[in-house]
Amino acid sequence: MGLGHQILWGTLFLGLCFAIEILLLAACTQWIRVLGVRWRRRSALWRNTGIVGVALLVIVLAHTLQVWIWAVVWVMFEVLADWNEAIYFSLVTYTTLGYGDVVLEPGTRIFGAFASVTGILAIGLSTAFLVAMMARLFEGRMIR
């Protein structure tokens, strides 16, 4: 795969993953608002636990989907031989852990770097989302 193709495909799949992350976090915001209203008669402990739990489930779903997308990419482009290796490499790369036991060929390394950029950005966005959500929960509950 040439440099131009690596950049093109890497950008497209990064964009797809980021669109999924943004859509799920936006939907999560709406779900949390609805649940906050439905659970308003419950104790603050249970309401806040439920809200944080829903947010964490959505975030885990978003990251899992993105890891699977990259695994599909590795198999689809015949970069990695089997699903076990593709899922493993996708997860290790997405989290930027990078053990180094599975290494891409020189013609796909730039493409592979896009998976780690996807993970960095998505994990950063998820963290910001959780911090903002927790700040709003604390503002409304801790002072009273």
Please tell me about this protein's structure.
With 144 residues, the chain is an all-alpha fold. The protein has a single domain, classed as Helix Hairpins. Helix content is 79%, strand content 0%. The protein is built from four helices and no strands. It has helices at 3-38, 44-76, 83-94, 109-141. The protein is elongated and about 60 Å long. The model has no long low-confidence stretch (mean pLDDT 92).
Keywords:
144 residues; mainly alpha; Helix Hairpins; elongated
Quickly describe the structure.
Keywords: Membrane, Transmembrane, Transmembrane helix. This is Ion channel. By secondary structure, this protein is mainly α.
Layout of SSEs?
Elements: H1 3-38, H2 44-76, H3 83-94, H4 109-141
Main sheet attributes: strand count, strand direction, barrel closure = none
The overall strand count is 0
The poorly predicted ranges are: none
Terminal Cα separation, in Å? 60 Å
Beta content: under 5%
Number of domains: 1
What is the average per-residue confidence, as pLDDT, rounded to a whole number? Answer: 92
CATH C-level: Mainly Alpha
Secondary-structure element series = HHHH
Helix content: over 70%
Query: Per CATH, what is the topology?
Result: Helix Hairpins
**Shape annotation:** elongated
Total helical elements = 4
The helix-and-strand class reads mainly alpha
Nearest-angstrom radius of gyration? Answer: 18 Å
Name the CATH architecture. Orthogonal Bundle
